[in-house]
Amino acid sequence: MSAGLLRRRNLLALAPLLLAACATTAGVESPPNAAAVSRVEAYFRTVNLHDAPFTQVWPNGSVGSGLITYRPGALDMRFTTPHEMELRASERSAVFTDAQNGSETHIGLAHSALGLLLGNPVRLSGPVMVTDVQQPPGMLQLSLTRAENPSQGLVTLRFKDAGGRLTLYDVRILDAQRKLTQIRLDPA
């Protein structure tokens, strides 16, 4: 057997070990991804959306819209369509009120994908795991989940990236039942 053929056979035999080694470092951020993650954390430390227009598409395809207010640790979504509703959320819990039928639903956020964005400050490490970073020209997309139980949901954030400044324009929340909700911030 030639030396080149022997080397290839040895590399093929080591392939499963090399793949396993790569898998164990999946949670370690490479320098470009670490820089992107730091930029997103900095964005959430300073963002203060006040009555920004939004459109939401629920998993069943129905559409709502209204005004959103977000600051570190707090979210308030006031729907005007399809009818008056409000979601008020803080670091640990949310209350959804439907003015049409008078119902009020309390939601714990400890295991919810939405809770990933309500820390004060938002930290994208430790209990939060960044699963994907994409940086095409003029855009930054980052997906995150809970490190201890990724099956509880995934949040994908899409930012416009112009002149080194990030502007959040799209949030996609995939819940534990694999149902997708999209929140699109409309231009002001």
Keywords, separated by commas or semicolons:
single chain; 188 residues; alpha+beta; outer membrane lipoprotein receptor (LolB), chain A; eleven-stranded antiparallel sheet; 2 helices; 11 strands; disordered N terminus
Q: What would the CATH topology be? A: outer membrane lipoprotein receptor (LolB), chain A
Strand content bin? over 45%
Integer average pLDDT: 83
Number of helices: 2
Strand order of the largest sheet: 6-5-4-3-2-1-11-10-9-8-7
Any idea of the CATH class? Mainly Beta
The structural class is alpha+beta
Oligomer: single chain
pLDDT < 50 runs, ≥5 residues: 1-29
| First and last CA, distance | 69 Å
Radius of gyration: 21 Å
Could you give a short account of the major beta sheet?
11 strands, antiparallel
How many strands in all?
A: 11
How many domains make up the 3D coordinates? 1
Q: What is the element string, with H for helices and E for strands?
A: HHEEEEEEEEEEE
Give the helix proportion (percent range).
10-25%
CATH superfamily: Lipoprotein localisation LolA/LolB/LppX
Shape: globular
Q: In the CATH hierarchy, what is the architecture at level 2?
A: Clam
InterPro entries: LolA/LolB/LppX, TAT_signal
Signal peptide: 1-26
Protein name: Membrane protein
Keywords: Signal
Would you write up a description of this structure?
The chain has 2 helices and 11 strands; from the N terminus they run ααβββββββββββ. With 188 residues, the chain is of the alpha+beta class. It has one domain: outer membrane lipoprotein receptor (LolB), chain A (Clam). An 11-stranded antiparallel sheet has the order 6-5-4-3-2-1-11-10-9-8-7. It is globular. Residues 1-29 have low confidence and may be disordered.
